[in-house]
UniProtKB/TrEMBL annotation, chain A:
One of its GO terms (molecular function) is ATP hydrolysis activity. Gene3D superfamilies: P-loop containing nucleotide triphosphate hydrolases. Residues 7-235 form the Rad50/SbcC-type AAA domain. This is Rad50/SbcC-type AAA domain-containing protein. Pfam families: AAA_23.
From TrEMBL, chain B:
This is GIY-YIG domain-containing protein. It comes from the Bacteria. It comes from Aequorivita soesokkakensis.
Amino acid sequence: MAKIKTIKINGLRGVREPLTLDLDKKSILVYGDNGTGKSSVTDSFEWFFYDKIEHLSNEEIGRRKGRDALRNIFIPETEDSFIELTFDENKLDSKKSIDNSLKTFNSNETDDFKKFIASSFSERLILRYRDLVQFIIAGKTDKLKELQNIIGFSDVQNIRDLLKRNGARIARNIKSANYDNLKNVQQSTILENLGQNAYTDEQLFDGANKLIKPLKLGIEIKSRQDINTVLKKIESKEDSELLNQINFYTKVKESVAQIEGNVDNINNSYSTFYDSFNALKKDPEKVKNLQLLSLLQEGKSVLTKDVVENDYCPLCQQEKSKIDLLQDLNFRIEELELLNKEKEKVDNNSKDLQNTIKPNISAIEGLLTEKLFEKEDYKKLKETVEKIQNSLNNHLDESKKELTEKLSDKEEIKFVKKEIEELTSELVKTIKKLTESKEANLKFKTYTKLFQSAKAYVEYLKIEKEQSVLANQQATFELLYEDFIKRQEEALNVFLTMFSNDINDFYTTMNPNEKVEDIKLVPLKKNDELVGITIEYSFFNETHTPPIAYLSESHINCLGLSFFLASVRAFNKESKFFVLDDVISSFDRSHRYRFAQLLTTKFSDFQVILLTHEKEFFELVSSEVKSKGWILNNFKWTKDNGTGIERGIADIKDRIKKKIEDKNTDGLGNDIRVYAERVMKRVALEIEAKVAYRNNDINEKRMAPELLDAVQSKLTKASKELKEKADIPKIKGMPMFIGNTTSHDNSFQESIEDLEAIWEDVKGLIHNFYCSDCDKFLSLKFYDNVENKIRCGCGNLKFDWKK
Amino acid sequence: MINEKPTELKIFFDQPKTFELQNIKPLMGLAGLYFIFSEKTSIQYPILKSRLLYIGMSEKKTNSIGSRLTGHFDGKSKNLGLVNYRKREQLFFTHINFEMLRNFWSHRIEDLESYFILDFVEKYGVYPICNNKSGYEILNKKLKANFIIDWQYFD
């Protein structure tokens, strides 16, 4: 599993100048005030792995998965913005860049890297404060979706839904095609012509042979080819017009008979649609609420994507906790989704009705293109058929009506079966009459009957085959679906148990001795189908669900964090790291400390990138995490460079050495000043040299002259020996230590030789207060009460000291 | 009625289906007759042997062949004979959609069922074994029709 060695960011979000974090596979705690660009790191990180920045991917902030807002606005057009990550496994190192035209490039195009990035999609790499409680306050369906997303069950769920949808679609097709009706129309034709029905070739041939027997053709029909041979043999050109008429009427009869067999279905489908439509329409509130649903869903999206950052409602501008707002929205959406289901039911009923009618409409449309309908003799029949067509079209129009419209009454639109039956009966009579109009012409009569029955039989087989293919498909989908449900449930239950144990463990570690225990994720089922997941827990030995009703915000956050950490444990298979961006904002003091302990004890095998804007938290847990080998860092933001790191003393010292070595005077004077300030601040702290108190963070910003004065003043009172040795006035007279805050930004124009000399003096000063043997400063903590001396940790450095 | 004089019509049965829900489901919404028979057991009826156990009927689409067969399948129809036969061996069924005979039968479906049952009685000597009739009823096949039913299908 991969850990990060370095993160280098340039020109992304708030980072203008290159920002490098040398992690060397270690965890890091970063403090940075609001606006110092911690989130720029998280955003860049998110972009590197997921190729998008979720909270920037909306219309208001940016488009194209947040890329519009990705580049730092001050970065020159010619320069690429980038994030470069190196890992303990070099093969994964990559630099992802974005140029001015927002084209992106990845320096690593190996399969290993692509696989690594692909796997990160199912891992949990980033948690931001705004996402912390999403899962906890989400509705049961969203919880299921979310969990399925991260455990890779979404694909399973998608396949399951696909199976269900396909099974249902095929079932609807089978139902609306009314295959049995179609087959029986053909069997009826065979029965009429052969005096028997026929489901097999054998039965057809048997009937056909009986039919042709009186003609004494000397042919025995044993195949369908034989039927054609016989038909050819007895065909008469003279009777072709009559034959056309018979075929025409047969076609009309078959289409009308199909409708006749479908009339009950059409009427029933309309009735079902009508009832569900009017039931929904009866309550105007429901219709209004349905229109509200999309607004609420959009509101939820706006809040979850952090378009609104503070605790207020974006619509009414009133102050309101974002968590409360989201909770409220989730609740209302879930409520309205039931209503939406009712609407879906109406829509499905409408579709069913359309599916039932459409095959008949197509059949009639095809029929009306028959040439004979153009003749005056068939005008009446044409009108009758068109009347049926109109009636079918009326049903179709009704099925497409909006809820705001009124449906035609059932009785008003109802198909009268009797009328259709009479028409079929009339057509059968006509066909019979035409067939028998040449009673004496046995050949013609036989030809017609054999032709019609053979045609009907082929048609029957075609329909049978189509039905059987669809029925097999439907059965397969249903079997697969059932099996899926079973396996999905089994796997999910195993996972949920394991996952719940972790959540419970992490939560109780952060909240020991509290009465919330046995936290579980519990699947919810409806009609044997998994419809959601809820969180259950025991509170004073009583089972409760969901958690939001009883837990404080801090506890809900703890639960959210536990959920995320349990996800990290369960799903991070390739990446042994994760980013926590300002997740402890609403935690109280005890939770904060335990949270840090949780990370250092239970996630010591992971590399954690923990970003916070809370100074208090940073200070509270600094020693805890530092003792476990974490790196500590401060972020600052400047107008010129954007986000940067407030460098540690060792860093600055190395830089000074390098600049002197390179004879590079650029900024060297400033570096020496900053270094001296940092060290003197520490010296003042250790010898308890007093400076005037200032409010908040300004108290931290002490300039060198002030610190040097304070130390000098303390030495005057406490140690003549050290005062003489340190010779602070000599240092204080140096150019970089003269002036005030404003002069800090001035650059020094001294020669390298001058600066070398100054550096030597500063080092000399510091050596009076710092012991390189024990790596400790002179400190009153090590005061020797017997000898009355102040000393370092090992005692190699000591001076007289009057307390 | 189309056929004033009953013409002789030979009625064949559709392909047999195993008696299971998957095959029953597509018959929801159909009205007509259905026939349940055993795979191996031939019943010794007074005149001839047959594997036919039951002739049933659905008179309307709301109580369709599909729902009637489902009732027999899960035992809700309380036809103990069918339930017990199903326990012992694989059963089959076939059906006749009333739509096919609509132009040849102007009476009710109930009458068509009677016609078939009485024709069976005529050929085999008694009602099918699971039709729960004693067999003492007077044969009465007065309705006009000349169906030649392919009872051999069940031999």
